[in-house]
Design goal:
alpha/beta; 210 residues; Rossmann fold
Length: 210
């Protein structure tokens, strides 16, 4: 990992992902989490202030960037529940099956090299009755915007830590073994349309759906 990826990228991503529209999205979904929570791509801990301390017992944060986690220390120090950081060198989640109540993934499926494998891992670690809470940007339904997303993504990935602008989030959730319980989608205000189409909601492992 070079100097840019290790020291510059975490600060760039932290700044971009802390914009007002994105933080409003976090505020919508993160309070739904309960029990033992696994957060995928915890990064600098931008979601941490939004967890409901009355419902959450602890948070396990997975992220490949230890430098990002270093930036989260101040947020962690203010919390009333424990937070454990685990490095994530691949899509394989280093937790036991049926060990968490909620999986939270926000603005992270865009960067995971194999999001389908990662989602299947998330489904495995969820206990019966548990749910995936998600908020992700992805493929626009407008063909003109989608064409721009396809044009920009190759360069964008190199500049933004592997971020894809054009991933079909509902399709990935299905391929990853989830049945979507509820989903909303729209462009975020004040955000470039190529990067601003957002999906948010919840899902459960498909085999648990009746």
């Amino acid at each position: 990992m070079g100097f840019y990826d290790k020291h510059v990228m975490p600060r760039v991503v932290n700044c971009a992902c802390a914009s007002k529209p994105i933080m409003k999205q976090r505020e919508k979904v993160v309070p739904r989490a309960y029990g033992t929570v696994l957060e995928i791509g915890i990064g600098t801990g931008l979601n941490l202030p939004y967890y409901d301390v009355r419902k959450v017992q602890r948070v396990i944060g997975l992220d490949p960037s230890e430098s990002s986690w270093d930036l989260a220390s101040e947020r962690v120090s203010k919390l009333a529940f424990p937070v454990e950081f685990i490095g994530l060198p691949s899509e394989e989640i280093p937790l036991d099956d049926d060990s968490v109540d909620t999986v939270v993934v926000t603005f992270s499926l865009c960067t995971i090299p194999d999001p389908v494998a990662a989602l299947r891992g998330m489904a495995k670690v969820l206990r019966a009755g548990g749910s995936l809470i998600f908020c992700e940007h992805g493929r626009s339904p407008d063909e003109s915007v989608y064409r721009w997303q396809n044009r920009i993504t190759p360069l964008w990935k190199r500049l933004a830590g592997g971020c894809h602008l054009n991933r079909d989030i509902p399709q990935l959730l299905t391929l990853g073994g989830f049945a979507v319980s509820d989903i909303e989608a729209d462009y975020l205000p004040g955000t470039p349309r190529a990067a601003g189409y957002n999906f948010w909601g919840s899902a459960r492992p498909a085999e648990l759906e009746v």
